[in-house]
Amino acid sequence: MITTSIFPGRYVQGAGALGLLGEEAARLGKAPLALVDRAVAGLVAPQLDAIDDLPLAREAFGGECSDPEIARLRAIAAAKGSDLIIGIGGGKALDTAKALAHALRVPVIVVPTLASTDAPCSALSVIYTPEGAFLRYLFLPQNPQAVLVDSALIAAAPPRFLVAGMGDALSTWFEAEDARVKGAGNMTGRPGGAAAHALARLCYDTLLEYGEQALRACERQVVTPALERIIEANTLLSGLGFESGGLSAAHAIHNGLTRLHGTHAFWHGEKVAIGTQALTILGGRPPALVEEVYGFCAAIGLPTTLAGIGLGEASDAELLQAATAACAPGETIHNAPYPVSPAAVVAALKAGDAIGQRL
Length: 359
Fold this sequence. Notes:
The chain has 359 residues and is of the alpha/beta class. 52% of the residues lie in helices and 11% in strands. The longest helix is centred in the middle third of the chain and has 26 residues. The termini are far apart.
């Protein structure tokens, strides 16, 4: 059997790492365009202003990783002759930067200012409609040439973002394990190797060991070894684990849930956490493991009920709509080594909601 694992070209993490952006950019291009999330523009401006060894054009991110936004930015970058894209901000800004670089056939540097998703390291952009509903995955021919993570910026962000990142990372081992058992392909279409599955398991173990400590550090806006471990788990381990290990039901259920308007105010990782909880039930995981997952989520403030993602009043018909989308042909739920159907997904969501309400 042929297995395939993929990785970013370089991963740099630590407090003050943003100060290395000029050095990293100079390796890859001469006319970079920085796509900057509006929410962090003021925070990163001093470091960007300090880059004086190459010209750095800047453009504000429009807010949604959508086809119209990518087309708008492509026209701007083409007019400027940009030969390097730098994405700075949250997951959607980074996905947009990766998609833009692909369209222009130039390198990309990813600078996450949140540890809220595992998007930074992957050769994947999640494309949404302009209104925020999941549209499709855009598979890219290569991973980012560099990922630069400034832990001090992560620590300065509201703790909810770190928690959401742990919700996204929580799915990694469960989905990679589903794919391993099924023999399903990862993001390359081929099964992942042993390294990918070991990293996925390390991601889960790191969350359980350091998650609460890291959250307390983030609440005080300080960088500690525990916070560094969780930033790495949320960003690198989860990114490598999902991309080279494979996806399954948790992300498919997330995608289905985005069809319901009530979820749009909640973060990707918060909805993925509900998907992971449903996966443990759908896949018949041992009760002790199910309890461990719910206990971890409750301890760090991840949602454990449908009300926690805006669906407290959702009807069975609405849940079936989301479940049907989760089970659509081509969705990653079909990587699961157990029977799946819209009705089974609805049952798992409702049973999971009951467990969460008990907590």
